[in-house]
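How a chain folds remains the central question behind the approach discussed here. The record that follows shows the chain in one-letter code together with its fold in token form:
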Amino acid sequence: LNGSMVWDYNNVGMQNGSGFFNDYSTTQGALILPFHDDSLKYYLFYFDPFPPDYGFYFSVVDLNLNYGFGSIISGLKNIKLLNFFLSEKLTAVKHGNGRDRWVLVHGMDNNTFYKFIVTNGGIGLHDTQNIGSFHFIIPPSGLAGGIQGEMEFSQDGTKLGVVNVTGIIDIFDFDRCTGQLSNWLELGDDSSLVNLNYYGCSFSPNGKILYISSGYPDNEIIQFDLNNDIIDSIILSKQIIWQATTQKFLGQLQLAPDNKIYLASGDANEIWPPTGVTSFYNQYLSVINNPDTVGFGCNLSSHSFYLGGNNCMLGLPNHPNYT
């Protein structure tokens, strides 16, 4: 799903695979989870951050239909789960029972997490929880409004990182059995004096290091050492491990199955207004090769992974950890 279309495995638009309430520019705009009891059916979660259709939705993909090429089930398309303004954050993690899954989104003008549970019986809102920094449509600084920014679980699902372009960096512990967030650590600065433009976040494979991308004009990759859980020590551990020397916008971070972290980027002039221009910067991903290592030994290799002539701009596929 790219905000308007779902494709089948032949890269052809899927039957009934258009007309979603979604937007191409959303940070974590879509998420796919398999059914418990049917390997050919999938939930497609997404949200529209803008009126008049803003809210959180799901549709169901059935690969049994259309001669095996799949189709969106007409009666299970654009089913609204929440009917209000949300930030551009959507992630999931496996329940402590090893079978069900948690799906989390975050509100706007509040500090509210909305936690859904996906079971064999369907999808239900488990609870809401007010914890962490407020995500403002117009922050106290008035410098810039912002709903953009990534939310990611650690590889083992026990920690959740949340960033926002208004200067928020939050870390929580997560109980996969109860769904409760706790032990909030505030590493950013969303005060009235700053606009730090944090966009992407990812934990290292061992969960002991947090990486943050800071977009234009800072163009930095930041590292926090979480080995000492004292907040002052974590803040003091902050290092800039790479800063782009040209006018680039650093986007999402994604921990991959090879235990490396990949970074999307694009030339700042290509990002906004979006031009669709292909350039060196958006044809390659940067790679953190040894993300469990504190400091420059993490070995960030800028623009080293070629996308085969394709481009990614700010986003990467939303593949949650431990699902």
Observations:
- The longest strand covers residues 122-135.
- The longest helix spans residues 231-236.
- Helices lie at 231-236, 268-271, 280-283.
- The CA atoms of residues 141 and 246 lie 27 Å apart.
